[in-house]
Amino acid sequence: MQNIIFCSYSEDLLPYKATEWSIWWDLKLAEDITVQQWSVVLAWTWIKSALPLWWWIKIYARSSLPVKFGLMVANSVGVIDSDYRWEIKVELTSLSWEKFLAAWTRIAQLEICPYFQEWKCFPNETPKVEMLVDAEIYENFADKFSSERGEWWFGSTVK
């Protein structure tokens, strides 16, 4: 079984659990960003992932995002398929006025989920999560962890 792999330029940007009992992994903003009122922007995380078949990721807003910043995840819940090899980005929208967020702000939470279809056999092992900090692997991630998806990146599974 293949591990679940997250890769970044910086250890500080890798997904992490804030406490021993945290269920989901926090994601940080990699670059400063300004979100105009009612606009949708892609927030960069500088995180790439490779998941084994039968696994996928959900991206949620942190519960404090609307309270502290007046922002929401634009598509409610982001979905990262197991064959997606490009940067994980979070779609943000402002509910009020223009908002500025500094790099390293925690903006979202990531849930790693098993995928089940009743007519297919699900693996009986849970993969381990592996964190990589390596600029060369990050730059060549889609080649190193190839998938049938190929060159198709964020927001597109159509070839």
Outline:
This protein has 159 residues and is mainly β.
Number of strands: 11
Q: Which assembly state applies to the chains in this document? A: single chain
Unreliable stretches: none
When the domains are counted, the total is: 1
Rg over C-alpha atoms, rounded to the nearest angstrom: 16 Å
Task: Kindly name the structural category.
Answer: mainly beta
The CATH class label is Mainly Beta
Architecture, according to CATH?
Distorted Sandwich
User: Distance between the terminal alpha carbons, to the nearest Å?
Assistant: 27 Å
**Remind me, CATH topology?**
Deoxyuridine 5'-Triphosphate Nucleotidohydrolase, Chain A
The fraction of residues in strands falls at: 35-45%
The average pLDDT value, as a whole number, equals 87
- Overall 3D shape: globular
Question: Could you estimate the helical fraction of the residues in percent?
Answer: under 10%
> Which strand order do you get reading across the main beta sheet?
6-8-4-1-11
Q: Name the helix and strand elements from N-terminus to C-terminus, one letter apiece.
A: EEEEEHEEEEEEHH
Number of helices: 3
Name of the CATH superfamily: Deoxyuridine triphosphatase (dUTPase)
Major sheet size, sense and barrel closure: 5 strands, mixed
Could you explain the architecture of this structure?
By secondary structure, the chain is mainly beta. It has one domain: Deoxyuridine 5'-Triphosphate Nucleotidohydrolase, Chain A (Distorted Sandwich). It has 3 helices and 11 strands; from the N terminus they run βββββαββββββαα. The strands form 3 sheets. It has a 5-stranded mixed sheet with strand order 6-8-4-1-11. A 4-stranded antiparallel sheet has the order 2-10-5-7. The protein starts with a strand and ends in a 15-residue tail after the last helix.
